[in-house]
Automatic annotation (TrEMBL):
Residues 312-405 form the Cyclic nucleotide phosphodiesterase C-terminal domain. The keyword Transport does not apply. Coiled coil: none annotated. Keywords: Hydrolase, Iron, Metal-binding. It comes from the Bacteria. This is Metallophosphoesterase. The lineage of its organism: Bacteria, Bacillati, Bacillota, Clostridia, Eubacteriales. Pfam families: CNP_C_terminal, Metallophos. Gene3D superfamilies: 1.10.246.180, 3.60.21.10. Residues 35-269 form the Calcineurin-like phosphoesterase domain. It comes from Allofournierella massiliensis. Belongs to the cyclic nucleotide phosphodiesterase class-III family. InterPro entries: Calcineurin-like_PHP, CNP_C, CNP_phosphodiesterase-III, Metallo-depent_PP-like, Pesteras_lmo2642.
């Protein structure tokens, strides 16, 4: 009897232990964070529209430092990295193409299908470069020629499978929609770039947003909002044209309904900001601009962690057997190209300056750090800041705004909600 009693006690203990482990497993599973990836401002250009000739080279050297010479390879490397990450969703917050070329949209959609085929939902909205663009061209040698651009009515045909078909609600006045990642977490994609409302949130869409937020509250769902244009100002010197029209009204709605955050792009600079009431927005840097990164969000109950991740283009290139030195050390190439472009922007203004070359080099490096979301890297006591102010140059105020930027790392943040 004693032996049977011991066995019974042991069996009971084992069963109890298994129940506790199972319960712990269930709790752990429910507590696992939801991983969401977000990229913005890809500015993808179809290889069919680019011969890498003189006109293209001149265009990118007079641009803003986007690594467009390798945008096809960068996009492929990004797609492969997303698939390896296995997120709950990939969000692309606008400026999908260089200038709205229909062929670029079609080619990009084909690449994104590789992500959805890996059972990863892709959610997109247009940016100000994606629709009705008069700058959609094919580069041919020393010149360019116009090509067909994409119209708003065609956008959700090309991208139907990337958010729109799975939407639980759509706005009749724009390309905005709600995508439920789960019963508890919804993504609100707000478009302000359709015909007639570029950069401005129309009253009808604002009313639609309010309805969706009220529905989310009744359903007990948390909301992450996404837009192309910024909701908050991310640079004292260059905020004009980047903050959407109607931002104050939309911000008030988000704060009232306890929206977790807003995710935007447009400004190409990596930057995070909070409103006076503590509402968080991350303007993720352009995928096409050094350090060519995307954002990874880990969403838990009452907490979200935001962190940027660079695309490992060099690793992808090695896997492809590439011998292109720029691809094999892409991080260096992309940073050098950004510095080259930005140095070129100011050197003409500094011809009469005794130390113009040094000033141009300083500007290029500080602006790289600034755009990479790392104003904590440069020394605000560097005498070159004063040299720039004394010069009275066209860019002097912008340089001073970089000095006044708090020395923080904008590539990571934690939001409690």
């Amino acid at each position: 009897m004693k032996q049977k009693g011991k066995r019974w006690v042991l069996l009971t203990a084992v069963v109890l232990l298994l129940v506790l482990l199972a319960a712990a497993g269930v709790l752990w599973f429910r507590g696992r964070p939801t991983k969401i990836l977000l990229a913005t401002d890809l500015h993808y250009l179809s290889p069919e529209l680019n011969d890498h000739g003189a006109c293209f080279e001149k265009t990118i050297l007079n641009g803003d430092g986007k690594a467009l010479a390798y945008i096809d390879e960068l996009t492929d490397a990004f797609v492969e990295q997303v698939i390896r990450e296995k997120p709950a969703a990939l969000i692309l917050s606008g400026d999908l193409t260089l200038n709205g070329e229909k062929q670029s949209h079609l080619d990009l959609a084909q690449k994104l299908r590789r992500v959805t085929e890996a059972d990863i939902p892709v959610l997109v909205i247009p940016g100000n470069h994606d629709l009705n663009s008069g700058y959609a061209v094919r580069f041919t040698g020393k010149t360019y020629e116009p090509v067909e651009n994409l119209k708003p009515a065609q956008f959700d045909e090309v991208y139907a499978e990337f958010g729109y078909n799975g939407a639980s609600a759509r706005d009749e006045e724009s390309l905005s929609y709600v995508y439920p990642l789960s019963d508890e977490l919804w993504v609100l994609m707000v478009d302000v770039n359709t015909l007639g409302s570029e950069g401005v949130l129309e009253p009808e869409t604002l009313d639609w947003v309010k309805t969706q937020l009220e529905d989310a509250r009744q359903a007990g769902a948390q909301v992450i909002a996404v837009s192309h244009q910024n909701l908050l100002a991310h640079s004292e010197a260059i905020s004009a044209g980047f903050v959407m029209g109607g931002a104050e009204e939309l911000l008030a709605l988000y704060e009232e309904h306890d929206v977790i955050c807003n995710l935007s792009g447009h400004i190409h600079m990596q930057h995070t900001a909070k409103s006076e009431n503590g509402f968080f927005e991350a303007a993720t840097g352009s995928l096409a601009v050094s350090p060519n990164q995307y954002a990874r969000l880990m969403v838990r109950p009452h907490r979200m962690d935001y962190q940027t991740v660079p695309v490992d283009v060099s690793g992808w290139a090695k896997e492809q057997g590439s011998t292109d030195e720029n691809l094999l050390d892409f991080a260096t190439y992309s940073a050098d190209f950004f510095r080259q472009v930005n140095r070129g922007k100011v050197i003409g203004w500094l011809q009469k300056e005794e130390n113009g070359e040094e000033m141009a080099d300083f500007f290029a490096q500080v602006n790289l750090d600034y755009f990479q979301g790392r104003p904590d890297r440069y020394d605000r006591e560097d005498p070159m800041f004063d040299v720039w102010q004394e010069s009275g140059d066209f860019y002097a105020d912008y340089v001073e705004s970089m000095r006044q930027e708090p020395a923080v790392n904008h590539n990571q943040a934690t939001v409690e909600y």
